[in-house]
Amino acid sequence: MGTIEVRPATPQDHDDVAALHRREWGGAYVVVHDTRYDLRTLPTLVAVDGAGGFAGALVHRLADGGLEVVSLARFHQRRGLRLVAVDAGAVDRARQVKPTIPSAGADDVPLHDELVLERRRTGTNR
């Protein structure tokens, strides 16, 4: 894997981020933990490759003294995030709020559960 830079999104990233959200989530709205979010209103980080090409995006919010990832696409597995929980049926419940959520994802894998990923910071002062 080549070099990836992660930085705050700028207005110049809008089209790439919007296209990614359309492709991955069907638009700018997602339902996480039974709450509907407009991804356009939350802080966004983008990943770009060594040539400056768009490689992915992470949308987050501050919650409960920490940072909650609301939308993450394409680069999470290589960034030290760990699976810490599965919310069984969360996608089925979200589909009741947002019916456009597909019933199957890549390779026709059924979508039912929400995966909770976490990356712990190390150090005593954090």
TrEMBL record:
The organism's place on the tree of life at top rank: Bacteria
InterPro entries: Acyl_CoA_acyltransferase (IPR016181)
Entry protein name: GNAT family N-acetyltransferase
Organism field: Micromonospora sicca
